[in-house]
Backbone:
């Protein structure tokens, strides 16, 4: 009788240990913070106001460069490696392309004409180098092999932005809408290590990406994680530093094609001031 009692007690202890270990697995890792951040998953981008073609009486197309090395733009670049739910802007785009929530378009044109699959995009972004290596069993014999280099989002130091300014006479406002974003990398000479040229990787259609940007936060130096804004907020509020490298013209040429150095900077500032002066001259005081 005693043996049966001890057997039942031992079985109950084992069953309790199993329940305890199972409950610990269900609980998951400790919370990394003082509260659960659930609001960001419910954020929706503010929709664009309705716009009729008849109400648009003036437009101007502009192309900008957003340099991630500028102090104001560093929050787009960091962190170089993802940390919890905090990712760099280019890493967010690449994850969206992998998930299929964002479409990449060929960099040959900024008109979003040729969509690319994620595999096609990786084939373009990843580089393959043919090198000679010694055989493990006989180091005196060399053999050819191909080494693939994966795409590193931290290599993107610039973004190109295509946008339209327009005047809506129904609401008496000059507004701007971003149309596309293009990551840019420096093409480096492997022999000298010097920069050869800048290479456009792909274009994304900004209105399609707003849902993705609205669910990802940008680091805020003032209020920490409690005051972080989404990337959609940052673009809609124009909280970035940039310069104009092209405005629509009859020759379809960029500023660098007819001006260099200081002259190019002055031409870029002139294009920016023309936009401000147009809006200011609409009204009389």
Residues:
């Amino acid at each position: 009788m005693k043996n049966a009692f001890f057997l039942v007690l031992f079985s109950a202890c084992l069953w309790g240990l199993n329940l305890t270990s199972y409950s610990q697995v269900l609980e998951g890792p400790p919370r990394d913070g003082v509260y659960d951040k659930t609001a960001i998953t419910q954020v929706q981008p503010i929709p664009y106001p309705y716009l009729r073609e008849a109400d648009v009486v003036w437009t101007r197309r502009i192309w900008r460069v957003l340099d991630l090395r500028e102090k104001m733009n560093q929050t787009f670049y960091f962190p170089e490696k993802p940390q919890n739910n905090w990712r760099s802007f280019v890493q967010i785009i690449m994850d969206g392309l992998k998930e299929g929530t964002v479409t990449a378009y060929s960099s040959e044109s900024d008109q979003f004409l040729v969509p690319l699959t994620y595999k096609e995009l990786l084939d373009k972004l990843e580089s393959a180098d043919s090198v000679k290596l010694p055989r493990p069993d006989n180091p005196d014999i060399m053999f050819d092999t191909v080494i693939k280099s994966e795409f590193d989002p931290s290599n993107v130091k610039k973004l190109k932005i295509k946008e339209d300014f327009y005047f809506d006479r129904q609401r008496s406002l000059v507004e701007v809408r971003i149309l596309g974003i293009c990551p840019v990398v420096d093409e480096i000479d492997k022999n000298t290590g010097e920069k050869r040229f800048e290479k456009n990787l792909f274009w994304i259609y900004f209105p399609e990406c707003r849902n993705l940007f609205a669910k990802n936060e940008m680091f805020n130096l003032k209020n920490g994680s409690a005051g972080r804004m989404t990337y959609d907020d940052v673009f809609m509020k124009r909280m970035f530093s940039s310069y104009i490298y092209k405005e629509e013209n009859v020759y379809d040429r960029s500023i660098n094609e007819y001006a260099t150095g200081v002259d190019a900077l002055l031409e870029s500032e002139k294009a920016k001031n023309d936009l401000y002066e147009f809006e200011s001259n609409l009204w009389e005081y």
